[in-house]
Amino acid sequence: MRYQLRCLSCGAVFSSSNKTQTCPKCGGLLEVEYKGKINFTLSSVSGFWDLEPLMPNGMYRHYEVGFTKLIESRESKDLLLKLEFENPTRSFKDRGSVIEVAKAKEYGYDEIVCASTGNMAYSISYFAKLFGLRAAVFISKGANKDKLFDIRSTHDAELHLINGDFTKAQQEAADYAQRRNVFLAGDYCYRKEGQSTIGFELFSQNDEIENIIMPIGNGTLFSAVYKAYSRLVAMHIAKRVPRLIGVQASSSAPIVHAKGGVIKYERPRTLADAIAVGYPTYGNQVLKAVKETKGLLLTVTDKEMIAWQRRFYQAYGIQVELAAVASLAAYAKIKSKLKGKTAALITGANL
Ligand SMILES: [Zn+2]
Question: Is 41's pLDDT higher than 70?
């Protein structure tokens, strides 16, 4: 056994053969804890699957995911852009989905379910089809119609349109998983491990990055990047974790608005659907990572993201989604306070 699962709420420990991603005792979030010495050198990394020694083992080594480009921006030579729309379904979600769907298959499930604001359902249903699993997705009625069409027609997923936001969809997906004995995917431990590959890749592409700016929806990506760098530091590969800077939409910012470490539900109203989350699952981990890295949390308005979406298209010729340029809108606001190289994650381009 290469890892175990620990509950972040009650501390209970489970073996890697535990088939659920939430605690069987209390329903809390489980976290993957690696055991023993890991045989890994960064110089051997030239693709996503070279990172496998750092990941929960599985049978998923087939598909091309990750290892997206890190390019110098047109704005400044100190600003680097990680182009996550190069993933198969055009968002960083694929890194987590490929691991989750493979885990579902490894555990013998024939169906997988998730709640989504759009991109995760798109990504999960894509990989479920590749791995030969059925997929059910719970998604708000107000979601992007083109994404819905592809999820149903191209990826053959069963679509459950619900009246309500992402938090409601999450509850309904969890109920469905329990009722039907289906693997519950989403912003849980295996997705987090898959998404942590962004951190490993960033370090392997440029070991001088001092700041990383990321949009925050559920906070999984943010806490995953923190975990990746922390592991590299523990393995004496990286010297320190960069300053982690999180961006939320001003009309959907429960983490930025947290007081005394307490996050309260906020009804999301932003047009940036990929980060429209009212109560982020990994909110507490985000607050911890910001504190530990002397990072920063800030908001950007929909208007600012729309302007940056246009600027990005003009500069690079690529149409990305609103959440993807949240990091650029944030950089423009705080660049005078940043020292050294900054990496901004351009998270997706599903339109
Ligand atoms: Zn527990």
Answer: yes
